[in-house]
Amino acid sequence: MSESVDIQVPPGQPGGPVALWLNRLTLALAVIGGLGTLGIMAIINADVVGRGVFGTPVPATAEIVSAAIVAIVFLQLPQATAAGRNVRSDMLLTRLSRGDGRAGHLMNTLHHAAGTLMLGILLYYIAPGILDSIEGNETVGLYGIFTMPRWPFVVCVLAGCALTLAQYAMLTIGFGMQTFGRRADA
């Protein structure tokens, strides 16, 4: 028996091919982030076993894990945003959504518009530093023992930030359409 994965448009998000592809891309990044989490677990376990059994730790474990954690957070942030799993007051939104729901949709519109603005500001200020990191051949690890390029981690941050911005913008449009009387999937 085979199950197909159904990528649905989250509530409040407008439908259409742009939203569908955005959701597929954010799901792919979330999967990569999940694989990164498994990688971190493997490195930490190898370090613990190496220390305990062989008396030799895995070199630069702390540095690799600290860089990877930041990348994983940004890889999974767009999917969390699209699914409505970011921090917010559900109690307030539930109360505002009573009746025709326009007050709740307005609050969601304002919340997501603020998120769009904040992610835009973040992207504006971090993108040049990330590009400098890539061009400068920065590394992560311990010099002379183990180093690896830093650019894969910062590219993950840049991609996650850009896709989170896109998710916030799509959700702002969707909730705005619901607030002002249009259906988001129209």
Note the main attributes of this structure.
186 residues, elongated, two-stranded antiparallel sheet, 2 strands
Structure description:
By secondary structure, this protein is mostly helical. The protein is built from five helices and two strands. A two-stranded antiparallel ribbon has the order 1-2. The longest helix is centred in the N-terminal third of the chain and has 38 residues, at 17-54. The relative contact order is 0.17.
* Overall body shape: elongated
Instruction: Tell me the total number of β-strands.
Output: 2
For the sheet with most strands, the description reads:
2 strands, antiparallel
Beginning-to-end CA distance, first to last residue: 34 Å
The neighbouring-strand order within the major sheet is 1-2
Q: Into which percentage range does the β-strand content fall? A: under 5%
Average pLDDT score: 85
The number of distinct helices, counting runs of at least 4 residues, comes to: 5
SSE pattern, N- to C-terminal: HHHHEEH
By secondary-structure content and strand pairing, the structural class works out as: mainly alpha
Using only CA atoms, what is the Rg?
20 Å
Contiguous uncertain segments of 5+ residues: 1-9
Helix content: 55-70%
